[in-house]
Design brief:
The protein is of the alpha/beta class. It has three helices and 13 strands, in the order E-E-E-E-H-E-E-E-E-E-E-E-H-E-H-E. The chain has a single domain, classed as Metallo-beta-lactamase, Chain A (4-Layer Sandwich), CATH 3.60.15.10. The strands form two sheets. The protein has a seven-stranded mixed β-sheet, with no helix packed on it. Strands 7-8-9-10-11-12 form a six-stranded mixed β-sheet, covered by helices on one side. Strand 7 and strand 8 form a beta hairpin. Helix 2 runs parallel beside helix 3. The longest helix is centred in the last third of the chain and has 11 residues.
Length: 226
């Protein structure tokens, strides 16, 4: 079977669709405000999800109306405690440091939080609430950081094939700190996320800070395959 992994950006924030073998994986199916419902990538709801991963419960990362459209009889949902209502959306509760196997996907869970010294200007993400995920898909590893600043756990995932890191600098790390995170992780490919707009100047700044790093900025609906 084809081992190609395709990553598609669905929203301005942290919602990505990953296709691997015959599996459809959604991470953080949310968006920032009601107007953005019309801006989601058209393929968002083409098929029911095989697997949904939620990093935390903020509405830009999980929306009940999106979950209702994604979940089918066979869908498996993983989320940390308190992220979604357990009665409305039955799911497997995950914990930092644990490792889960769901079909052909192996999933490591690491911390995600703001730090006092981090560049985020609003510290809305306490340690122990949100998570990041490391997906093992065949021989490839993909890291989705969730909402975070640079944290020590990033040293554990050195050399992942793809890292999805926030760059907005409000509730999460900014471009400069994302470059610091990438320097620790050293991914094969860096995908910036969690921002409404990224200017050409921002992309150039990231490239200047990481001259040897492969970076791809995906707009909504755009994909990359590895």
């Amino acid at each position: 079977m084809d081992e190609t992994i395709t990553i598609t950006r669905i929203s301005h924030w942290s919602w990505f669709l990953i296709r691997y073998k015959d599996w459809t994986i959604h991470i953080d199916p949310g968006y920032g405000n009601d107007r953005e419902w019309q801006q989601l990538a058209p393929i968002a709801f083409d098929a029911k999800a095989s697997l949904v991963l939620i990093t935390h419960g903020h509405y830009d990362h999980v929306r009940p109306e999106a979950l209702r459209r994604l979940i089918g009889p066979q869908t498996i949902v993983l989320a940390p405690f308190g992220a979604i209502d357990e009665e409305t959306f039955p799911h497997r509760r995950i914990e930092v440091g644990a490792f889960y196997e769901v079909g052909p996907v192996q999933i490591g869970v690491i911390d995600a939080y703001n730090t006092p010294s981090g560049h985020s200007t609003k510290k809305y993400h306490e340690k122990g609430v949100g998570v990041g995920y490391v997906l093992h898909l065949g021989t490839k590893r993909i890291y989705h950081s969730g909402d975070t600043d640079v944290i020590p756990d990033m040293e554990k995932i050195h050399g992942v094939d793809v890292a999805l890191l926030p760059v907005s600098g409000v509730y999460v790390m900014d471009v400069e700190e994302a470059a610091s995170a990438a320097a620790i992780i050293r991914p094969g490919l860096l995908l910036p996320m969690h921002e409404m707009t990224v200017t050409e100047r921002d992309v150039k700044q990231l490239s200047r800070l990481l001259p040897n790093q492969n970076i791809a900025y995906l707009r909504i609906g755009q994909s990359v395959s590895i």
